[in-house]
Design goal:
single chain; 5 helices; mainly alpha; about 120 residues; 3 helical TM bundles of succinate and fumarate reductases
Length: about 120
C-alpha cells in the first residue's frame, strides 16, 4: 500500500508537466496572431482592389513574404494545438483520439507547407 496523495500520483504520470508547455505555446501563437492577423486582413483588403501585376509585385518584397510566412506558421500551428485540446477533451477512445490528433497535425502541416511553397513560388518568380 502506497501512502501518496492523488496529486502526487498524478504528477508521477507526467500529466501535470506536459500541459504547461502546450498551454504556453498556444497562448504565444494566439498573441502572435493578433498583429499578424490584422496585418494580413489589411493587406488582403488592399489586394482586392489591385490588379494581378500589382499583387504580384507586392509579393516581391521580402517583408511581405516574411510576414505572410510567419502568419501561415502561427495560424496552422495554433489551429493544430487547439484541435488537439478538443480531441483530448471530447474523444474518450484512446486509439481514435490519437488518430484524430495525428491526422490533424499532418493535415495542418501539409496545409502550412503548401501555403509556404505557394508564397515562395510567387516571391521567386
Amino acid at each position: 500500500m502506497k501512502y501518496e496523495s492523488s496529486l502526487k500520483r498524478a504528477q508521477g504520470l507526467g500529466s501535470a508537466k506536459s500541459g504547461v508547455h502546450h498551454w504556453l505555446v498556444q497562448r504565444i501563437t494566439a498573441m502572435a496572431l493578433i498583429p499578424l492577423g490584422l496585418w494580413f486582413m489589411g493587406f488582403s483588403l488592399l489586394l482586392l482592389t489591385s490588379s494581378y501585376e500589382e499583387a504580384h509585385t507586392s509579393f516581391s518584397s521580402l517583408w511581405i513574404v516574411t510576414l505572410s510566412i510567419s502568419f501561415v506558421i502561427a495560424l496552422f500551428y495554433h489551429a493544430s494545438l487547439g484541435m488537439q485540446v478538443i480531441w483530448e477533451d471530447y474523444v474518450p477512445h484512446e486509439l481514435t483520439r490519437w488518430s484524430l490528433i495525428m491526422g490533424t497535425h499532418l493535415f495542418c502541416s501539409f496545409l502550412a507547407i503548401l501555403s509556404i511553397i505557394s508564397i515562395l513560388k510567387i516571391f521567386l518568380t
